[in-house]
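Usage

Read records sequentially. Each one opens with the input sequence:
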Amino acid sequence: MTTNIAEKYDLRVPRYTSYPTAPHFSDAVTGDTYAQWLEQLDPKTRLSLYIHIPFCDSMCWFCGCYTKIVKQYKPVMDYLNTALDEVDLVADKLPARFSAQHLHFGGGSPTMLKAEDFAKTIGRVKARFDLDENSEIAVELDPRTATEEYVAELAKAGVNRASIGVQDFDAEVQEAINRIQPFDVTKRVVDWLRKYGINKINMDLLYGLPHQNMDRVMSMVDRGVSMQPSRIALFGYAHVPWMKSHMKMIKEEDLPGSEERWEQVEAASARLIELGYKQIGLDHFAHPDDELSQALDANKLHRNFQGYTTDQANVMIGFGASAIGCVPQGYVQNLLPLKDYTKCIEEGVLPTGKGLAYKGDDILRGEIIERLMCDLEVDVDAVCAEHNADPAPYRAELGKLDNLVEDGLAVINGNSIAMTEKGRYLVRIAAAAFDTYLDQGQKRHSRAV
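and closes with the structure output:
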């Protein structure tokens, strides 16, 4: 990527894991609103469940998640009991017993839970929702705190996918982000997972970190691939110290510039493809026989708050402080801080802090954006036809993309747009052309690449 292109498109845009995006949620959506939405769900609706465990035993300075640092287990145990009470609260609002095809544990670090409490949590969920042998139970795993006994208990509890945070294997980079995790520590946990039958393994890698250069990024990719994960997410580090104060511990002068970030992501992506992975959308890679690759080939790839997914459920229910859910009527997000979340649960009230009710053409625009993010192309007229909508206003948005076309980053054919391979990493900018909310929250978003 040439310097002028890298600088020209060094913009801040949403990641589009939802539309409208989270900065536009408001307290107009309350617990009472959410209760009504849950009561209106069709019992045949497909569900996906998410449980947020907002604790770690140390702060990684690159982290953009909501998390609390704890050194004792009691706060974790107290929180877990509260979250399990929320499971009951939500299930009681539903008009029937529902089936869940996905159960995802995120954080923070879900492996802060003791193994027996992890099993207890899955048991409580199964008491209120139907999960079967085809349901995916996934956990984000921190190799620094996992033991073989712990991994064995995860497998026994039904976990069948693990997502491992790595970021980078280089010692200097790890020190700069306050996450010391030698390669051997990660490799040992991957071996344990496979030993106990958890063969679906995701791995998160980051570019754009302090002290990263091309050699280190390529080494990071090669060492990650040596463990043969099913999927690799190659994310760009989002430096937003005005939102996450701990990021101020990372010196900005140690961060690669916009042109270096371009070079890093392009070279790392090319290496992953060379090593047999299929590129999925913006930043994911998967083995050709992985379900994510198959979903891409079948035009069934989706995107939600966990990134690219095979999850076909149109409802996600989030449990835990700050957890986000999505139902046909809109989005909901649970309260922060923990004390406010806990107080609601103790009072038997759904802990909704904010959300967004769909209005106007939100759903249609969201589908255009999702298809563009997933497939790197979208036929505007086809999406409008599915919604019985006049395509004229959406065709007009294509005019906002003339710069991308002129720079060889996108191609407009009639009323369809497709990103070129050169423009893949700018798909978020193309998606932003259809985002009518963007100007209201632009300063809160991360860099395009």
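Summary fields computed downstream for this record:
- The chain has two domains: 41-316, 362-447.
- The chain has a mean pLDDT of 93.
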